[in-house]
Every structure is written in C-alpha cells, then in structure tokens.
Amino acid sequence: MGVVAGTTVDTLNFATAGSVDDGKSTLVGRLLHDSKSVLTDQLEAVERASASRGADAPDLALLTDGLRAEREQGITIDVAYRYFATPRRRFILADTPGHVQYTRNMVTGASTAELTIILVDARNGVVEQTRRHTAIAALLRVPHVVLAVNKMDLVGYEESVFAAIAEEFTAYATGLGVPEVTAVPISALAGDNVVEPSAHMDWYGGPTVLEHLETVPVGHDPEPCAARLPVQYVIRPRTAEHPDYRGYAGRIVAGTFRVGEQVTVLPSGRTTKISGIDVLGEPVGTAWTTQSVTVLLQDDVDVSRGDLIVPSAAAPTLTQDVTATVCHVADTPLTVGHRVLLKHGTRTVKAIVKDIPSRLTLDDLSQHPHPGRLVANDIGRVRLRTAEPLPLDAYADSRRTGSFILIDPGDGTTLTAGMVDGSEPAATACAR
Questions:
Q1: Please, what sign has the CA dihedral across residues 266, 381, 422, 230?
Q2: Cα-only R_g, the chain
Q3: Bridge partners of residue 196, in order along the sequence
Q4: What is the pLDDT of residue 37?
Q5: In the structure, what pLDDT confidence band is assigned to residue 70 with cuts at 50, 70 and 90?
Q6: How far are the Cα atoms of 125, 179, 202 from residue 169, in angstroms, in the given order?
Q7: Which pLDDT tens digit goes with each residue over 335-370?
Q8: How many angstroms separate the CA atoms of 270 and 264, rounded?
C-alpha cells in the first residue's frame, strides 16, 4: 500500500504482450505520456530522438525501448520495467518483447503480473504469437487478461472488425481456462481509448485501458493462505550485544506468520515455535506476504539456506516425483533422460527428466502425445525425478511455491520454467 495525494492506494503489477509491431511500446508510452507520468527531460529526449529520425511527432515507443539495438530495429528485446502512479493506484509495468525469439522474456515479465494486456493489430487479428502469449498467461494463471485491439485508426474504427477479433480471442482464451477477458478497441498512436475516451468509436461503451487498470480488483487477503518462508540467509551476528542471536532471513511469499505459532522446517521435518519476528530490525508480532523478515525459533533447529519454514498445520507434502506444465525457453532442446538442476525457491537440487507426456499444439489446443523433446518456446508436460525431496505446492494453490526453473548444470543456462501440477491441494488455495 502507499499514499498518493493524501489517498491510500494499492499497487497493480501488469505486463504487456503481443506480436511484433502490434504497438506494445507505443501503448506504454501513451499511457505514461497521457497520465502525466513522463518527466520533462525524458520527453525532450524522445522528441530529439524522434526528430533525428525524421518523425513529425514524438515516437512514444522510445520511452520504453531503451536499448540501442531496440531503437535501431524498432523492436523490444528485453523486458522494460516502468513505474508510474495516478491518484487512484500505483503501477509496476513490464513491457515484454513480441518477437518469438524473446518469448522467454514474456514468461519473466508475466510471472509476477496480476494482469496482462495482450495487443492485437486490428489489420492482422489473432496470430500465432498472440495464441502463444495467451497460453503463457493462462499457464501462469494471470488473474486478469485485457485484449487491446490496436491500430483501429487503420481499419476506419470499424466496430465489426473489433467484434470479430474479440470473439475469436475470447473463445481461444476461454478454451485455455482464462477466467476473465476484457476487450478494448484502441489506437495507441492516436491515443484513442488509452487514457481518454475515443471520439471516433462512440459505439464502444466500456472503460479505457487506464480506467480498467485503475479499477480492476488486485491482491487478496493474506489470512487464508498457507504461509511460506523460503530461507535466504542465516544471521549470526556473534557480537557482545547479540552473542546468541540466530535468525532466519527471507521474504514471505505467501500467508501470515505470528510469534508463538508452531512451524515446521522442510525438508528436515523438524518442528518448533516462532519465538520472534524482526522487520527492518524491529520486533513485530505478525508478518505477512511480501515482507522481508528475520524469524527466530524457540528451539535450536538446524536451518540453512534453501529450507522452507511453514505452519505445521498446513505443510506441503515432500516429494521427489514432480509432474509439471512447462514452457521451454532455451535453444537447447529438453529431452527425456536430460539431467538438470531444479531451482525451487532458494533451494537447488539435481533432477532428471523421466518423461515428456505431451506437447501443446497452439492452433487447436490439442495435446501431441510423447513428443520425446521440447524445443524453444514449446509448452508441454514433463515428469521429473529429483535427487532430494522438495516441499512443493500445486501452482494452482501458490504461484510462488508451485513454480520452479530447470537449469543446465554445465553452464548455468535457464532451460525451462515449470508450474507444478496438483492433485489434492495441500493447503488453502492462494494463487498469487
């Protein structure tokens, strides 16, 4: 939570996605410009850069395409994060690449998003990369999806064009299990329905993009969630003031912890009670999701980096057999028998790919059985066997402790982003 102009506001994490040249960076630039979130020197720099390229008006895409290669090629390569605020809400925006080669960066940008804006060029409609980005948003369980049908000015602002694209996209997204789609016809270049309502589309009665971003429900009550604290560091000052201090530091990724609560340390399974919680060096009685804390335990329990502290009453089941849906992001294929490292939270263990049961076909959402391998940008299901037991939640229950990445043990390259399949939830659902 924060304060803007004397009013308590919350924060929305959202991402943009879409195919190349659909106008993502222009939309982001328009949002920043029209919401008065661009500093004068930034705007002047964009105006100079636009003029040097022979443009008659400022190219707002340059507000986000910061890499030299991006400006030269007119594409987004890396995820560009931007922060801005209105009187109603603060925003953390991830502008992700559209080119198929950089789909892995879309996975990164959308993994923490509560909303994804997927752009479609009104002239081209839904294309393969649109379907791929929609599938990724569905797999990552992004709660809210916005379809922004861009470049409506180039199709004469025709309602029928927008309606046909919205119908096709919504049907496809619904088939993937996307819970909510909001479709908005826009022209990012002209500013129609981005921040201000369009004078050219009086047939549209819905919100502008910014109005929807300001009003969509975000966050959740952390109370029902099963608490999870991956240990990042063990603090032992060994000073005269704190000779016996032993704290376990980390960021709470789900739920709430309280002093006096009985907890279990995984994977060892040892139980104890929380004797103290420090936040920013000050003792507190309660701490919750997203807070960085140091937890003190009543008993002398062996705890180290990679362990997971959980409430004893809501502990996940330890397992060495992992079934997951994955998005393969590396150029090197993932094959049956592939030996990898699996990083879950702050813990990394050895693993082997036992099976690849299926690969998703994006065109018709059918499953291609036993493909034998996954190549870059493939989405499929895998079965893994880990060398050590892991405390995994289902991804449907927790986006934080139900996710992992696979790493090449030879060079440290990230191979695959995985989301753990669930059978019976180990705790109250909390898909944050």
A1: positive
A2: 23
A3: 192
A4: 78
A5: very low
A6: 9, 13, 22
A7: 999 999 999 999 999 999 999 999 988 777 788 999
A8: 6
The residue assigned the tokens 């964009």 is 46
- Phi then psi for residue 24, to 5 deg, are -65, -50
Q: What CA–CA distances, in Å, run from 379 to 87, 228, 368, 392?
A: 40, 28, 11, 21
- Report the alpha-carbon distance of residue 223 to residue 414 in Å, rounded: 34
User: Which SS3 state, helix, strand or coil, does residue 327 take?
Assistant: strand
Count Cβ atoms within 10 A of the Cβ of residue 171 and give its class: 0-12 exposed, 13-18 middle, 19 or more buried: exposed
pLDDT category, 56, cuts 50, 70, 90?
Answer: low
| Across 293-308, average pLDDT | 94
- Average pLDDT, rounded, for the chain: 84
Instruction: Count CB-CB contacts under 10 A for residue 300.
Output: 9
- Give residue-wise pLDDT tens across range 235-250: 987 777 777 788 999 9
Helices and strands in the chain, H and E counts: 7, 26
Cis preceding-peptide flag for 409 (omega within 30 of 0): no
**Strands 347-360 vs 379-391: parallel, antiparallel or unpaired:** antiparallel
Global pTM value: 0.78
Contact 391/315 with Cβ under 8 angstroms? yes
> What would the mean pLDDT of 368-373 be, rounded to a whole number?
92
Average pLDDT over residues 206-218: 94
Torsion of CA 145, 18, 111, 218, to 10 degrees: -30
How many degrees, rounded to 5, is the angle at CA 124 between CA 177 and CA 115? 35
* Contact status, residue 145 vs residue 172, Cβ threshold 8 Å: no
Pick 144 or 432 by higher pLDDT.
Answer: 144
User: Angle, nearest 10°, between helix axes 128-139 and 159-175?
Assistant: 50
**How many whole angstroms separate alpha carbon 99 and alpha carbon 17?**
10
Residue 397 predicted with pLDDT over 50: yes
Nearest to 122 by CA among 15, 14, 23: 23
Q: Which single residue is written with the structure tokens 């850069």?
A: 49
What proportions of the chain, in percent to the nearest 5, are helix, strand and coil? 20, 35, 45
Q: In the structure encoding, which two tokens stand for residue 124, read together?
A: 């081209």
CB 118 within 8 A of CB 133: yes
